[in-house]
Specification:
There is one protein chain. This protein has about 160 residues and is mainly beta. It folds into 2 domains: about 90 residues, Chitinase A, domain 3, CATH 3.10.50.40; about 45 residues, Thrombin, subunit H, CATH 2.40.10.330. The strands form 2 sheets. Strands 1, 2, 3, 4 and 9 form a 5-stranded antiparallel beta sheet that branches. The radius of gyration is 18 Å and the shape is globular. The model has no long low-confidence stretch (mean pLDDT about 90). GO terms for molecular function: peptidyl-prolyl cis-trans isomerase activity. Its main location: cytoplasm. This is Peptidyl-prolyl cis-trans isomerase.
């Protein structure tokens, strides 16, 4: 079975941002990541590199910013009231945190400045503007269930539970 749309693919990965050391790795968590192909659940460049591959394949791929988290935007800064953050008293400049947004759901942001009632954040993803190097090992491929296709994400092992 090959990786294609509406297949659930489980895979281990590590990713670095050009600095050599991985910035994230499924291997450290022990469980592979499971995604529904074609549902835009991973960055486009990584999904494209998986298409046509089979379980057991291991490969490396470099993904340009345009096919990952986009280019950095210097003007992508926003002042947000502290009430929208979990644990705002623990936030310091340079720290990454998740901000719940109405339009886009959870969004990774970087704290720029902490004031008495507001926090200035960089809305660029921390990996925006970077070419990412992935080491990927596809561990399993299966047909997605009709429910997974309708919900546009994986259910069960490695996926989302309802």
């Amino acid at each position: 079975m090959k990786v294609e749309a509406n297949k659930v693919v489980s895979f281990h990965y590590s990713v670095s941002d050009g600095g050599g050391e991985p910035v994230d790795s499924s291997r450290e968590r022990g469980e592979p990541l499971a995604v529904l192909i074609g549902a835009q659940n991973i960055i486009p460049g990584l999904e494209a590199a998986m298409l046509g591959r089979e379980a057991g394949e291991r490969f490396q791929v470099e993904v340009a910013p345009a096919e990952a988290y986009g280019e950095r935007r210097a003007d992508f800064v926003q002042r947000v009231p502290k009430k929208y953050f979990q644990g705002p008293e623990k936030l310091v400049p340079g720290m990454s945190t998740v901000l719940q947004t109405k339009e886009n759901g959870p969004r990774m942001v970087v704290v720029l400045k902490v004031g008495s009632s507001v926090i200035d954040v960089d809305l660029n993803h921390p990996l925006a503007g970077k070419t990412l190097s992935f080491d990927v090992e596809i561990t399993q491929i299966r047909d997605a269930s009709p429910e997974e296709i309708a919900h546009r994400h994986v259910h069960g092992d490695g996926g989302h539970e309802h």
